[in-house]
Each structure stands twice: as C-alpha cells, then as structure tokens.
Amino acid sequence: MSRNSPFRPEFHNAIMTQRRPRAQNRILIVMACFIGIFSVISGRLVFYGMKDDPVDYTGPTGSVLASRPDIVDRHGAVLATDINSVSLYAEPRKIIDPDEAFELLSTVLPDLNFEQTYARLKGNAGFAWLRRGLTPKHKNQIMALGIPGIGFRTEKSRFYPGGPTAAHILGLVNIDNQGIAGMEKYIDGQGLTDLRDVGLAHGRKLAPVKLSIDLRVQHVVRDVLVNAIERYRAIAAGAVVLDARTGEILAMGSVPDFDPNNPFNALEKDRLNRMSAGVYEMGSTIKTFTTAMALDSGKADLNSTFDATRPITIGRQTVHDFHGKRRVLTLPEVFLFSSNIGSAKEADIVGIEGHREFLVRLGLLDRMQTELPEVARPTEPKVWKKVHSITISFGHGMATTPLQTAVGAAALLNGGMLIAPTFLPRTIEEAQTIAKRVVSKRTSDDLRYLYRLNAQKGTGGSASRTQVPGYRVGGKTGTAEKVINGRYSKDVRFNTFIAAFPIENPEYIVLTIIDEPKPVDGQVAAGAGLNAAPMAAEIIRRSANILGVLPVFETAAD
Q: Rounded to an integer, what distance in angstroms lies between the CA atom of residue 165 and that of residue 172?
C-alpha cells in the first residue's frame, strides 16, 4: 500500500470525521420536519376540540352565521340587532334508530311534525335542520337525552326591541337572517349580501345603519293609530311625520301591523303597509294640488272667483257640492268650503294636459323613489278626457299612496321645492342639492295662508279639532267615498287629513288616514274632520316638543 493511498487508516478516519456532522444535520432536519408536521396536526386537533360543532359537521356554514348591522334611530336607539340563538340539526347517516330518536325528541318538543321530522331522521342526507331558534332550556334537555347524530348550531337571529312599533319600516329577515322586506331588505341590497357571499360579514361587528326615524315620535304615532282604530271602529289607520325641509321621514305607521319577532301574520292582506304600498283615492286633500295648480298657472289668484251656483253635468257625471253655497265663490272660499264645483272649474282653466303635467311634476302619478322596497305605483286613466280632469280635481278617478301625497304637500308648503323622501338621515344642505322647484314661492305662500284659514274656519268639523294649543297648525281634510261593488258608497269612507306646522314656515307635515271609520259619540257622520283631523292634532300635541318645535302662546293683545 503506497504512502498516499486513500485506503490508509489515517485517511479513512479523516473522511469519517468529516461525514459525521453532515449525517447528524440530516437527522436534525428530518426530526424538525416531523415535529413541525405533528405540531400543525396537534394544533388543528386542539382547534376542532375547542369548537362547539363536530369536526365532521356537513351543514351550512355561510349565511346562517353571517352578522347583520344594528339598525338604530336618528339618536342611536336600537331598532334591530343580532342575538345568538341555538338551532337543532340531525346527521341522518349517524342516526342509529330513527324511531327512538323521534320519540326522545318529542318528549322535549311535543309539537314536532312527525312525518316531516321522521323523514329527515331516516334519510341519507348528511345534514337536516330539525328546529331553528331553540331556547336554552330545550337545548339542555335535548343534550341530556344523548341521541347519536343530533347536534346544535349557534346562529344569528334578528331581534327587534320595539316589537311592532316600527314593523313596516324595519321589515323582516328570513330564517337565515337575510333581509326580505323593509329597510332590512334595503340593507342587503346595499352590499351586505356581497359581503356575506365572500365571507366578510361572518362574525364581524358591522357599523350600525342609522335611520331618520325618531323612535319617540314613532311610539306616539303607533299609539295614536291603535287608539283610533278602537275609537272609530275602523278597519285600518296610518300616519306619517315628514320633515318638510329635508324629506326625512321621522315616523310612519300603518295598523294593523305585525311583530317582526314573531311574524306569523305578516303576510295577511289587512297588514299591508298602507302608507307606501297601498294606493287610494285621496279625496279632497287633492284639492290642495288643484288650487295650487290654478294659482301657479298664473290664470288665477286669491281674488279670482268661480261660479258654484249649480252642479256641473258632463256625460253621465253630475258634480255636486257637499257643503254647497249655491253662489259665486272666491278662490279661498272654494278651498274653505271644499267645493267640488269650484275645484272642477279651477282645473278647467288649466286644461287637461296642464292638469296631468302638474300632478306628474308633484310626483303623484309615478312610482315613488325611496329606500323602502314596498312602494306601490299610482293609478290613473289610460287616456285623460275632460271628465277625468274634472273628477280628479276633487280626488276621484286617480289613486296614489298616502306617503307621496304627504311629500307633494310638503313641496307646496315648504317654499315650492319637491324633495324625495328618505328613511336615512339627511341635512338641509344635502336636501337643497337634490330639491326640485315645482311651484313658485308666491304659490307656496298662498297655500300656507289657505291651509291656516282652513284649519281655523274650514268645513267638515275639522276647524276646532285641528287646533293644538301653542302651535299654529294648518290643514286640509279629505273624505273619499270608497268603491264598493263598482260604485261609490256614501256610507263607506277612506278619510285623510294633511297638517303642517308651524304653518307660517312649515317644518313638519303630518298626514293621517283612517279606513272605514264609524260615527262616534252620537254623531250621524264620520267625515275626516271628525276622525283623521283629531288624529293629526294628537300626534302634533304629543310630538311637537320632541321634534324641537316650541309652543308659542298668543296674548290677548296679539
């Protein structure tokens, strides 16, 4: 063996000495990899072990766990919020004995539907809901039964602290906490659904959605409506309080209503939101628009006169005055006495095309644009003829929603600016950017004068019943005969009252409706001045101070 041979012992030892650290490094690396892998596995096991749900849960994991933002009123009072609830589910493939499982469950939930529940328990699906929204007591009792294949899921449920107070505004969510009506549906349409779809709404505290509603005024409105239905034995009633300067809706109610916490009767037709989703002939309140139209056309002023000596006959229609004076009336008298004949002649001087254009301009013939999804489309004749213009001038022959009637009246009384209504907060500055002039300021001033005069001296019993001590209120009644079996009935009415205060510079519009009221306290009639007008006065009396309108009491010297 040569001296430089690599097989000499000293060379072999040197090589082995160099390889030993490399081998040890490889072993350490392999060990580190195994430790990392087992750490990840252990961490996941701990994670799943801490979860309430089983690891092999195959039920829905998306929208049912998604959060919804709180809905609050203009002052931050909570109108709707999410709460956690527990729901019961089954994994049928793990159910050993469906008969025994159902018998055990029925001891805690005796109202379980047998056919439906049993079919789900014995099926081959990986997941099936059995009952949503369990109480904690029921959960504990079912857990104690120890039924294999039965589990619980924590979900988000919607809770409305005020119950039915603002039901038609807030709307509803479905069993999966998705908005299906009212402002709840509007919120989903503004991006919440997209957030849920990509998983960004799950488990997050979303910023509250603030409405223009004042919960205190909303309480007042609903209380007045509930009492009115009972007092006047009516089938329905409604009201809205609207800020004439911004278009904000401060309160709106329609009864009968429903409790969104338990909406079992929400779809019954008598629980319709009559203020925005119902269309009605608004009776003599439409004379507000007819008189404004005549004034704004420049063809009439407060000194104009109209001959109301005898009825008007056109075709088969004969127009009479309910409070007929059978003489020539000044324009203020036409409004004050609510003359159908005088209103028809006001419309006649403007003409058919001008009449329809004015109502379109005021937003009464198109579907109203606002956040609330439940908005009905007004109805009108397909082709306007002179007979239509005449009857529409005093409120017959066209139907619109009470809410857009209030919005149109606000435009006539706020200086002449039409402002789209909103259920969201809006400043006066913001309103001015979207406001549209529809009549002149002169016309608006004249209407304020007529409204105040009508509240003081008007016919139909409204004068004394609309006065609210300390507040200068102006208003106009509307007593519309309802169509029964194709004919107008003199005994079945839909009554309306539009009020504005303080009338010299209106800040708020209050519109009330009452459907099929009956005479009370020995009265022989049930006109709007006897029911709808007192309702508006009561709302103003109880809410004006809340809205920041302070009373002013005139002295004898004034």
A: 13
Instruction: Please say whether the beta carbons of 119 and 104 come within 8 A.
Output: no
**Measured between alpha carbons, how far is 193 from 170 in angstroms, rounded to an integer?**
17
Which amino acids are annotated catalytic? 284
CA angle 319, 283, 350 (to 5 degrees): 60
In order of 20, 26, 223, the CA distances from 33 in angstroms are 20, 11, 71
Q: Which residues lie across from 129 on neighbouring strands?
A: 89
SS3 per-residue string spanning 269-289: HHHCCCCCCCCECCHHHHHHH
Using CA atoms, how far apart are residues 509 and 530, in angstroms rounded to an integer? 19
Cβ atoms of 332 and 303 closer than 8 Å: no
- Write the CA distances from 471 to 241, 358, 503, 538, integer angstroms: 16, 31, 9, 12
Percent of the chain with pLDDT over 70: 84
pTM listed for this prediction: 0.82
Q: Is 262 exposed, middle or buried (0-12, 13-18, 19+ CB in 10 A)?
A: exposed
Please say whether the beta carbons of 454 and 476 come within 8 A. Answer: yes
* CB distance 440 to 298 below 8 Å: no
Q: Residue 422's beta-bridge partner residues?
A: 248
Residue 88 · residue 130 · CB < 8 Å: yes
Does residue 397 come out as left (phi exceeding 0), alpha (psi in the -120 to 50 range) or beta? left
**What are the tens digits of pLDDT across the range 120-157?**
998 888 899 898 888 889 999 999 999 999 999 888 88
